[in-house]
């Protein structure tokens, strides 16, 4: 990591430490508890907590909970779990913007007293209309020049719940002709008749995001307030609020490019639509790019932190290919995942010359490249299952698997030679394949040195265990589900994003694996024992990712 050049944010921080501007770096991760965290949030978490770790600083977890209508304690708990799971530590306790409501109120009174805020009675529509556009200056509200005393009185009455929602707001008095629309007397408080998940019905008025955020940062002595690019235009308001109030500290807001990932959508609001429309099986559906979904899919914290390191932090919006995320989990699992065998779509093979009742054991390596991971014994019997796709009635020359006239190697087992096969007359489906085995080839090599190109996986029909395997694919069928304005993203869902294989048979050990365990099924990919649905006798395994990028050309 030392020789990698610093990204522009880490460079600013290094400079601020060197110049003595700061001696301790304090960052924060400020999610709104209105949904579950996704991989985009992970970028921000890894940045803020990463900077904390690298500089022996502090990173606060602050819930930005100023909109009681959409927030809930369920999300607070889910977010804490996800941040912890990624391996980060926010210190003694999580913080909440709502804890600052009393101070924020006092600061608003101060602004009013300074003549820098006023109570406005325009409706939301009128405020929008008066704001003007990028090419045309705004129009001043008729309430803009209310006397301070009247503003103080009305703001107090707003707080006391004397007015209806939408009838009054408090606005900062800045500049209706500013080229920046955010500076045209932005609303800083509104009335909401809603119960807040922490403050209950104590407050009838709630501060707006821009006003809350800079003051919360200031109250926590944040040194660098890192946010995504869409807040660049909000920075003047961030600075105006702190400058006007002459606060004792003034955090520096720095914007970076948000993560966009192909074949998915990245917004809590839209992910919520997938959940509520039951297009997926909850926030933690393994096809979701929520952290809880990725966890259930079998992604590790290390893979996500490595992914964040790979994509880096920049100033220009860009798209990251889903393959980059998939490679991150492959790289993490490849050296550590024990190899196992499982037949997803079984067809029976009968070894005509193998003793009827014999069950032998053959030795399989747990990891071909890492002998330290040891071996396991695999039961071998007269009747076996192989993958339906590993047999062809009329195979082309390059098909190095089983077919008439072919000999093939059973991984860690014997060489077997095709004899005959049977089909269901109605469906044409192959029902069983007869072969003979060569007793001289235990372990897979022939004493006479004859060459057998194909090696296939198998499971003993007698000793194998029935499992359910879910094969996941990308949730959307197009790179950018939101690109086409005429098509809703819901209509871009990939209908084959989950394929359930409920006749799969695996080597016996799979039955005893704890939920969350990750293994590689040879030739099939990395799989994770589903933590939430494996309670019954029959384990369910989720495919985390295929072995290589099957999408690459
Ligand atoms: P969403 O639209 O998905 O709800 P948000 O920005 O409204 O995202 P917050 O809970 O406010 O969600 O986000 C907390 C932090 O995570 C913010 O600092 C935000 O900038 C950052 N963040 C959110 N999405 C991304 C992303 N795609 N890439 C990088 N950072 C992100
Ligand atoms: Mg937000
Ligand atoms: Mg949002």
TrEMBL record:
Q: Which InterPro entries match?
A: aa-tRNA-synth_I_CS, Gln-tRNA-synth, Gln/Glu-tRNA_Ligase, Gln_tRNA_ligase_bac, Glu/Gln-tRNA-synth_Ib_cat-dom, Glu/Gln-tRNA-synth_Ib_codon-bd, tRNA-synt_1c_C2
Q: Per the record, what are the reactions this protein catalyses?
A: tRNA(Gln) + L-glutamine + ATP = L-glutaminyl-tRNA(Gln) + AMP + diphosphate
Which chain regions cross the lipid bilayer?
none
Where ATP binds, per the record, is at 32-34, 38-44, 228, 258-259, 266-268
GO biological process: what's one of them? glutaminyl-tRNA aminoacylation
Please indicate the residue ranges that the annotation assigns to the motif 'KMSKS' region: 265-269
Q: Which family does it belong to?
A: Belongs to the class-I aminoacyl-tRNA synthetase family.
What highest taxon heads this organism's lineage?
Answer: Bacteria
Stored HAMAP family = Gln_tRNA_synth
Q: Which NCBIfam families match?
A: glnS (TIGR00440), PRK14703.1 (NF011291)
The terms describing its cellular component in GO are: cytosol
One Pfam entry for this protein is tRNA-synt_1c
Q: Where is the tRNA synthetases class I (E and Q) anti-codon binding domain?
A: 455-530
EC nos: 6.1.1.18
Give the species this sequence originates from: Desulfomarina profundi
**Does the entry feature the keyword Ion transport, yes or no?**
no
GO molecular function, one example?
ATP binding
Annotated L-glutamine binding lies at 64, 209
Subunit organization:
Monomer.
The protein's name = Glutamine--tRNA ligase
Q: Which residues form the Glutamyl/glutaminyl-tRNA synthetase class Ib anti-codon binding domain?
A: 337-438
């Amino acid at each position: 990591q030392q020789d990698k050049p610093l990204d522009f944010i880490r460079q600013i921080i290094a400079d601020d430490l060197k110049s003595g501007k700061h001696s301790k770096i304090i960052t924060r991760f400020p999610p709104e508890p209105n949904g579950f965290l996704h991989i985009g949030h992970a970028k921000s978490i890894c940045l803020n907590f990463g900077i904390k770790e690298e500089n022996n600083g502090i990173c606060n977890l602050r819930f930005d909970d100023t909109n009681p209508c959409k927030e809930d304690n369920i999300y607070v708990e889910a977010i804490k779990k996800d941040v912890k799971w990624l391996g980060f530590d926010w210190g003694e306790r999580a913080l909440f913007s709502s804890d600052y409501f009393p101070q924020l109120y006092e600061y608003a009174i101060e602004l009013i007293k300074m003549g820098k805020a006023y109570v406005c009675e325009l409706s939301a529509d009128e405020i929008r209309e008066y704001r003007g556009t990028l090419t045309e200056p705004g129009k001043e509200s008729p309430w803009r020049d209310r006397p301070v005393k009247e503003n103080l009185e009305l703001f107090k009455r707003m707080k006391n719940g004397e007015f209806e929602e939408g009838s009054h707001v408090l606005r900062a008095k800045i500049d209706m002709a500013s080229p920046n629309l955010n500076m045209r007397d932005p609303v800083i408080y509104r009335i909401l008749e809603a119960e807040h998940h922490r403050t209950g019905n104590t407050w009838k008025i709630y501060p707006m995001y821009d006003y809350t955020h800079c003051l919360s940062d200031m109250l926590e002595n944040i040194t660098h307030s890192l946010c995504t690019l869409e807040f660049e235009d909000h920075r003047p308001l961030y600075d105006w609020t702190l400058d006007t109030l002459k606060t004792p500290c003034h955090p520096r807001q720095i914007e970076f490019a948000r993560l966009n990932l192909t074949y998915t959508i990245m917004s809590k609001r839209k992910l919520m639509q997938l959940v509520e429309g039951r297009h997926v099986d909850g926030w933690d559906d393994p096809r979701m790019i929520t952290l809880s979904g990725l966890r259930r899919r079998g992604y590790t914290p290390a893979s996500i932190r490595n992914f964040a390191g790979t994509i880096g932090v920049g100033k220009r919006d860009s798209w990251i290919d889903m393959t980059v995320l998939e490679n991150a989990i492959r790289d993490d699992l490849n050296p550590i995942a024990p190899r196992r065998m499982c037949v997803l779509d079984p067809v029976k093979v009968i070894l005509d010359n193998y003793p009827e009742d014999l069950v032998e054991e053959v030795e399989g390596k747990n990891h071909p490249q890492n002998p330290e991971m040891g071996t396991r014994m695999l039961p071998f019997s007269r009747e076996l299952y192989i993958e339906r796709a590993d047999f062809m009635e009329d195979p082309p020359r390059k098909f190095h698997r089983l077919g008439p006239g072919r000999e093939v190697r059973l991984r860690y087992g014997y060489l077997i030679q095709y004899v005959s096969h049977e089909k269901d007359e109605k469906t044409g489906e192959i029902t069983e394949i007869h072969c003979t085995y060569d007793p001289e080839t235990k372990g897979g090599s022939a004493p006479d040195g004859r060459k057998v190109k194909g090696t296939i996986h198998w499971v003993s029909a007698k000793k194998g265990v029935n499992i359910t395997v879910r094969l996941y694919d990308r949730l959307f069928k197009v790179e950018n589900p939101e690109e086409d304005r005429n098509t809703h993203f819901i209509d871009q869902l990939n209908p084959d994003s989950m394929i359930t294989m409920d006749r799969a048979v695996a080597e016996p050990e799979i039955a005893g694996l704890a939920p969350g365990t990750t293994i590689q099924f040879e030739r099939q990919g990395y799989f994770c024992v589903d933590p939430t649905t494996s309670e019954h006798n029959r384990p369910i395994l989720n495919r985390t990712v295929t072995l290589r990028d099957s999408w690459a050309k």
